[in-house]
Design brief:
By secondary structure, this protein is an alpha+beta fold. It has helices at residues 2-6, 30-35, 113-118, 178-192, and strands at residues 22-28, 37-43, 52-58, 67-70, 86-92, 99-101, 104-112, 120-126, 129-135, 144-147, 164-171. The mean pLDDT is 86.
């Protein structure tokens, strides 16, 4: 018994061992990250057995690069140990015309020259649909209009939302008639006086 223990005679029993953690990547859309979604992923054991389908709930507000941990969905345990975890790394697709920073979303709106001068309204396409926003008279190109609560929901508190910021681009008129050009020159003289 003494020599068997010293030279690894095989009498030692290893205790329960937790299974290996597995890692997978998931691609989701900008909207799915904002509002949450359900995804079905196929996990292969790599041992010739059929792939296992698993339905995963992606929480609203998740950011690119974050991971979801599914406990007990990883590799099998040894000697009665619990299974490992499955770590799903999230990759969020870009949405043309929109940029996310934390819970805030940034976009750009185009405003006619006359609206920029006199003020008015403009349509902003938010994640939850189109809204009208006020354009103050004399707004400058590059100014940002803040739409409170129109950003991404907080993962920690569903009642908290980020904001949306719309950067203003002023449309410079083209192909003006001679009369319109004359009016603008008169306007320029008045402003410069």
């Amino acid at each position: 018994d003494i020599f068997g223990g010293m030279f690894g005679g095989g009498r030692q029993q290893q205790g329960p061992q937790k299974g290996n953690d597995l890692r997978e990547d998931i691609d989701i859309s900008f909207e799915d990250a904002a509002f949450g979604c359900e995804k079905v992923i196929n996990l292969s054991s790599g041992q010739g057995t059929p792939a296992q389908s698993l339905k995963v709930r992606v929480p609203a507000g998740i950011e690119d690069g974050k991971s979801i941990r599914l406990r007990g969905k990883g590799g099998p345990g040894m000697n009665g140990g619990e299974a490992g975890d499955l770590l799903l790394k999230i990759h969020v697709d870009e949405k043309p015309g929109y940029e996310r920073k934390g819970m805030d979303v940034y976009t750009t709106i185009s405003v006619p020259f006359t609206t920029a001068v006199f003020g008015g309204e403009a349509i902003v396409n938010t994640l939850k649909g189109s809204v009208k926003c006020k354009i103050p008279a004399g707004i400058q190109s590059g100014s940002k209009i803040r739409l409170r609560g129109k950003g991404i929901v907080s993962m920690k508190d569903p009642s908290v939302h980020g904001d949306m910021y719309a950067a203003v681009q002023i449309q410079v008129p083209r192909n003006l008639s001679p009369e319109a050009k004359q009016k603008l020159r008169e306007f320029e003289k008045i402003v410069a006086a």
